[in-house]
Every structure is written in structure tokens, then in C-alpha cells.
Amino acid sequence: MVTPVRGDALTGLGAAEARARLAAEGFNELPAEHSRPMWRIALGVMREPMFFLLAAAAVVYALLGDLGEALLLLLFATISVAIAIVQQGRSERALDALRDLTSPRALVVRDGQRVRIPGREVVRGDVVVLVEGDRVPADGVIIAGSHIEIDESLLTGESIAVAKLASAVVPETLAAPGSGERTQVYGGTLVIRGGGLVLVLATGPRSAIGSIGSSLSGLAREQPRLERESRTLVIAFGIGGLALSIIAMLVYGLLRGSWIDALLGGIALSMALLPEEFPLVLSVFMVMGAWRLSRSRVLTRRAAVIETLGAATVLCTDKTGTLTRNLMSVAQLRGGCDRWDAGEPPERIAGSDELGLLLDTAALASDDHLVDPMERALAELQEIAGQARRRGVLLREYPLRAELLAVTRVWDFAQGGIVVAAKGAPEAIAGLCALDPAAHADLREQVESLAQRGVRVLGVARATAPSAELPAAVAGFRFRFVGLVGFADPLRESVPQAVRECRSAGIRVVMITGDYPATARAIATQAGLAEGAAITGVEVEALDDAELARRVRDATLFARIAPAQKLRIVNALKANGEIVAMTGDGVNDAPALKAAHIGIAMGGRGTDVAREAASMVLLDDDFGSIVRAVRLGRRIYDNLRKAMGYILAIHVPIAGLALLPVLLGWPLMLTPMLIALLELIIDPACSVVLEAEPEESDVMRRPPRRADSALLSRSLIAWSVMQGVGAFGVVGCVFWAAANSGMADTSVRTLSFLALVGTNFALIFVNRTFTSSLRAALGRPNRVLWWGLGIACTVLTLIMALPAARVFFGLGPVSAGALALVALAALLLFGVLELAKRPWRRWLQS
After folding, report:
1. How confident is the model at residue 231 (pLDDT cuts 50, 70, 90)?
2. 302 in any annotated domain
3. Are 562 and 662 found together in one domain?
4. Residue 99 has what pLDDT?
5. Cα separation of 653 and 642, whole Å?
6. Which of 15, 347, 564, 759 is 20 to 30 A from residue 123's alpha carbon, by CA?
7. Residue 718: which pLDDT band, with cuts at 50, 70 and 90?
């Protein structure tokens, strides 16, 4: 239903009525959510098990007198609180960025007078005055104006400005952005040409941008699975370690009667089992991963999402500016019997009478300001073709109208007479030229052929006028058809290779665009997207959620998609168990970016809203950077599993060596001080050293891991326990042999501790790679590993060489022969585990 524009509409609202509507309907801005105070956020984090265990470990170390370790753990705990506070602020800035788009000052008509007010005070029924360069403050209908072009890319994703027309009626409801409605404008869009008056029909959350903001604020970001798994592991190890420590302490106290020794043994065992490395490893891996990505021009806003990217099964990408360069260029000229294609020498255009006339006429029909991307492309082609841009006296311009989608400009050249140049929709130009049916059919066939290649087509016509007495309508000229100009947004050079890598890694690339199906399919073919079903926005609207989830399983292309439908598509993919990565740059992409497991925004041309809603930002807008991020994500996850497996393996001999004397009544071998010294080797090994390991050779040739795969799978746990049991067997044998050789207790402790350090080195090398190759285990480049081993060996040598240091740590002297046997035992353990790894490899990478 529509109503005519009233004659008094141009006088605007009265001030009193505007105040009443503002009070009743609220400000023209997105509703603000009440932020939690900083102390409440911090309190919530301190209730987390990970923080509690870090703090508890710090207390234990402090009571034992190791203030350095205690302060380090407290530092990690403080960092976790700070990160949570920062993330809370980032999630709120997405809505703040949306509010900024709707908050510029607006020129409105109130009581017949033009007054400038804050954009947030614009109300329904206001008449807004728009001029070139203005940001539209709210949704409405144009009731007066001419030559208006609006950049709606932040809502529709399409880079071509939309020509707008004045309407004589007021619609009851507004069409969606990108629907093709030419009389309506939307808040947050930009006027790039012309001006006029707009009657406001929707403000704040009722506007198109407001509905996006409302859906964005209602979305809860999923907690990365890695965080959930690590929390479960920490709780399990913490509870298990505490229970075992209490049992061991009670058993020793009851059987031996020495409760002080029992307490010391229980503390040593709890320290041996305390899972402080898990949160440390997770933090280091994520921080280092973010740093490595930043070197590839990828900004990580949520570090934990890096490993999720390595598990992505579907990558949803928009077309304009992501797969393409968002830069219009002339793809083809068809003038008479001649034709020029992009890639041919531009100089040939000037040498062809038909092509030269076509390009000259198209340029004459263009605006002098060259705001439109297609008009800029024409001017650039003229320049490189060596064709001078002619300009005479502009007599008149016949603007685009609803009934004639073409622009006509009339020029008076002193020596060349009066030239009339027109360009526009091919059908409109064909009508102006009164083409016969055969020529008209041929034109339609050419346009369809170009559209199938993803080319936008304009028809060009030319006429002359005998004098400056010009007709009132364009139809008064006798036009002749000059030819067709095809424009294309070229594919980024890196895209085909990036798509191939995604497909080889088992990642399905899906294009979601607001463009027409034929254009989208052409770009998809050029990019190398897999053949699959194409679904339009109309079809998406007609499907319920269950049917949509079924249809998206084999779809690779979604065309003519509205903003709200992007969110539905992402949710449908997630409902099928897919790990979804989504790229985007506009406001219309923000809800889908936030809902996806991995939201990837474009940093160069992306809006603040998209960047704040996303988890990652491509600083160079290069689609190929996504592949590098996927590769790194898989490497991080592989290395994280290696580190977690190593942690589990090394804690078996540590716990065994701490528990064995308690159960057998032998002197305590691992004192809390020695365990703290051992941690100085374990912590860097499981965090910095294994994090720096290069990627596996097949990292991008295997499918994504299953969505339900565990960080510590059963096979990895079994393999780690087997390593730990083997290491404990070596250490236990050394302990038993030393204890029965008549050595002093301090020497037995020393030899047992050195055996534990040696098996620790062996486990580091075993866990460097999932392959069973000795060459890979020893020869893979990792300078951090060799620096770490060198420092550890130097520290141990100094401790053993300095009597005061030996006394401080409760150690004693040992012979060179005993040291050689310990080294040989560690080498033997390494060789046996490398041989045993071969049958486990397939399960370790699953």
C-alpha cells in the first residue's frame, strides 16, 4: 500500500511533534547494552578453575620459598584477568562502531526552516536535506531531487553506486537494501552524487542498519573448543593430582609414622602432578601464533580462534573485494564489427574508427566528476589508449529515470557541432535506437554472453542535433547504436591458487554474494570453486531452517543474498556440524562474522563494524592470507597436541619417582626444589621449543580434523602414557641400581635426577614430529630447541661442578661412568620409542 506525498511534506515536522516522537520512539541510534563493571568481569574470571589452579600453585611455591615461581604464576593469573576485560571491551566496540555510522549531524526541515541537528535526534516523519558527501541518517523515501547516486556497499556489499529517483508516493513498508528499489535510501549509506529531500520512515533499531545491529547484539560468541578442552584437562589433572597426593601422604604417614616426611612427599607429588603447564602452553601457543600471523599481515583479535581456523571445513567468502579487486575495469568493447578485449594493446582502440567512436561516446555520456567506478574505468582506458578526452560546452543532461535507465548528455563543440551521447542499460539504449527485432535479438544474445562471464554491460548510442533548441525528452533525438562496453571487477591474482590449496586441505569454499547468479557463477568458475548447487536469496527465504540446512550441504554459490540471509546460511552450515570460517567487509556481514566459528574481516576496505565483529582481520585484504592462516592454524594445533602429549608423558616418571619412595619407604628422591628445577626445563620445552617446531609435511594435504576430535585423543593419551612408562622404567632401573650399589643417598638422588633429565630430553625429540623418521626427529630445523638444550646442559653442568650448588639442591657427586650409563639409557629410550611410533602415526594425527 502506498500514499501520495502531501503537499505540506516539504515544510517538515513541527518542533513540538518532533519532540513528542523522539520521546515516544527513542533516539535514532542502536540500543546500548549495560556493560558489566570491570570488577565484576575480574571476579568472574577468578572463579574459573584455570585461574584458581594458577593461584593455588603460586601459593604452594610461595610457601616453599620459591617466590620467583610464585610471582610468575601470579603474573599469568593477572594476565588472564586482563585479557578477559579487554575482550569484553572489544565485543562492545562493534555496537559502538555501528552507532557512529548513524550519529553524524543531519540537516532537516522543521517548521519550514532548515536546521542542523544531531543525527541521533532525527525522527520518523522528518524531511532530511541530502547533498553530495552526506551520510544518510535514517531510512526513508526520496520525495525531491535529481542525479542522486548512493554508495550502499556497506549494506549490500556491492561496489557500484545506485542511482536514485524521486517518488511521488510514500510506501507503507521499505524494501530491503539491494532489492533494486530506486526511490528509497538507508541509514549509514553515503551520497556520492546529487542531492535531494528524503522523508524519514524508519529510525534507530527499526532501520536496516539498526536491524543488523540488533541481531549483532543478540549473538553470543562461541567459546573456542580448545578453551573448553584445556579447562577440562586442568580440572581433571588438578583433582586427580590432589587426590593422589592426599592418599600417598596418608599411606606414608600411617605406614611409616613420619608425618613430616609424608607431608613433604605429598607436596612433592602434588607439584609433580600440578597441571600448570597446560594454561602456560595454551597462552604461549596462542600469543606466538598471533605474532606469527601478524608477520603475514593477519591481525588476530581473539588468539584462541587460530587453532579453530586450522579445523575449518567450510570457508564462506563474499565476492566483491574479497575474491575480486573491487576495482572496475573495461573488459571488452564491441563497436560495429570490431571488438577489443582486456589484455590486447589499448593503442589498437584509437586505430579503429568503430572502437574509437564507441569509447569517445561513452566518455561523453559520463559525468565530469568521475565518481562512478565504471566512468573512472572509461577515463583510464581513454588515457592509456592515447585518446584525448574531448570536452565542449555541456548544453543539457537528461538524467536517469525509472522509465528510461540511461543517461544522456548534449555537448556543443565549436567545430564539431552538437553531439548527443547516451549510455545505460542495453535494453534502454536499444529502445532509444529503435532497433529492428533481429538486431534487438542479437543484442540480447551478446549481453547474455557477456553476463555469463561476469561482465556488466552498458549500451552506448550517439546522435546529433541541428541547433541548440533541444527537445524536452530524449526520445526527440534520432539515435544510432554505437556498441557495447563491458566492465568487470577482475579476480585477485592469488585467488585460484588459494582456492586450490583450500580444496586440497579438504576445505569447501562457498561464495555468498548479493550479485546476480550469472555474474557470481562466472567469478566462481574463474576462482576455481568446486561445482555445486547455486541457491538464490529468494530460495533461501522460502526454506525453513531444517530444509536450508539440507540444501547447503552441497552448495558452493549463494547469489542475490540479503544481509539477514547470510546469518541464516552460516547457522545452517553450523547445524550440519561444519566448522565455519566467514569473510566479509561490510556492516551487512557483521552478524554472520560474529556467528561464524571464525570471522575474518578485511582490514583495508572493511568497516569498523565488520572488524570489531570478526575474530581475525586481513590487513592486506588478500584472500591468499586466509590459506596461510589455515596452514598456521593446523601447525599450531599439531604442535599443541605434541606439547600436551609431552606434558602427559614427562609427568609419568616425575610422579613415579615422587611416589615410589613414599610407597616403598625409601628416602625421598625428588624434593620440591628439584621439581622446581626440572620445571625450568619442562616449561620452555613444552611451550617455546615445541611451539617453534615447523609444520608437518602433509599439513595441507589432509582433511580437517573432526569437529568432535579431542585435543588429547585416546590414541595420543595411550601413546603419551606408553612414553611415560618407558621413561619411568629407565629412571626406575637407574634408581634401583644406584640404591643397591652402596651409593650415598645424595648420589642416588643425583643419578636418578640426571636420568630423569636425560629421559626428558629423549621425550622432547620423540615428540617433535608425528613421523617415525630419525632424520625428522633429529634434523628438523628448530634453533630454539638447540638453544634450550644448550642452556639446560650448561646450567646442569654448573650445578654439578659447583659444590655449593650441589648442596643447595641436595645433590652429590657421581662418576663419569655412571653419567655415561645414564646417557646411554636415554639414547636407548629414544631409539625404542622412535621404532614404536611407526604403527601409531595414523592415529596420532587423527
Report:
1. low
2. no
3. no
4. 46
5. 18
6. 564
7. confident
Torsion, Cα of 241, 243, 247, 248 (10° steps):
10
What's the residue count for the chain? 846
* CA–CA gap between residue 311 and residue 296 (Å, rounded): 19
Instruction: Name the residue among 549, 493, 555 with its Cα closest to residue 520.
Output: 555
pLDDT at 706: 73
Neighbours of 784 (CB within 10 A): 15
pLDDT at 342 over 90: no
Are residues 695 and 809 both part of a single domain? yes
β-sheet bridge partners, residue 583: 600
Q: Is the dihedral of CA 623, 628, 631, 635 positive or negative?
A: negative
Alpha carbon distance 476, 464 (integer Å): 11
- Residues sharing a CB contact under 8 Å with residue 221, sequence separation 6 or more, in sequence order: 91, 594
The Cα–Cα gap between 164 and 148 comes to: 5
pLDDT digits (tens, 9 = 90+) for 673-705: 676 677 666 666 667 788 888 888 788 888 887
Crossing angle of helices 225-256 and 259-273, rounded to 10°: 160
Burial of 405 (0-12, 13-18, 19+ CB in 10 A): middle
Q: Which domain holds residue 520?
A: 308-325+492-621
Which residue is listed with cell 541464516?
A: 568
Is the per-residue pLDDT at 76 higher than 80? no
Annotate 755-776 with b (16+ C-beta within 10 A) or e (fewer): bbbbbbbbbbbbbbbbbbeeeb
- CA pair distance 390, 316, nearest whole angstrom: 45
- Give the β-pairing of 508-512 and 314-317: parallel
Residues with Cβ within 8 Å of residue 617, at least 6 apart in sequence: 298, 299, 301, 600, 601, 602, 603, 606, 611
Inside any domain, residue 558? yes
Q: What pLDDT band is residue 85 in, cutting at 50, 70 and 90?
A: low
Cα separation, 599 vs 601, in Å, equals: 7
pLDDT, tens digit, 9 for 90 and up, residues 488-507:
888 888 889 889 888 888 89
**303, part of any domain:** no
Tell me, what's the pLDDT at 267?
60
Q: What angle do CA 448, 474, 433 make, to 5 degrees?
A: 40
Q: Compare 377 and 243 and report the one with higher pLDDT.
A: 377
3-state helix, strand, coil in the chain (%, to 5): 55, 15, 30
Residue 626 near residue 618, CB atoms below 8 Å: yes
Residue 162 pLDDT grade (very low, low, confident, very high; cuts 50, 70, 90) = confident
DSSP state letters, 634-671:
HHHHHHHHHHHHHHHHHHHHHHHHHHHHHHHTPPP-S-
Torsion over CA: 310, 314, 318, 319 (sign) = positive
Lowest pLDDT segment from 94-108, 272-286, 387-401, 622-636: 94-108
* Same structural domain, 639 and 596: no
Q: Does residue 657 have a pLDDT over 90? A: no
Do residues 586 and 610 lie in contact, with contact meaning Cβ atoms separated by under 8 Å? yes
Looking at residue 526, which CATH number applies to its domain? Answer: 3.40.50.1000
pTM: 0.66
For the chain, the C-alpha Rg in angstroms (whole number) is 35
Residue 588 lies in a domain: yes
Residue closest to 646 by CA, chosen among 785, 824, 749: 785
CB 449 within 8 A of CB 518: no
Residues 575-588 pLDDT 10s = 998 989 988 776 66
**What pLDDT sits at residue 61?**
56
- H or E, element range at 557: strand 555-559
Phi-psi group of 180: left, alpha or beta (phi > 0 → left; psi -120 to 50 → alpha; rest → beta): left
Query: Taking 50 as the threshold, does the pLDDT of residue 90 lie above it?
Result: no
Taking only the tens place, the pLDDT of each residue in 197-220 is 999 999 888 888 777 766 655 555
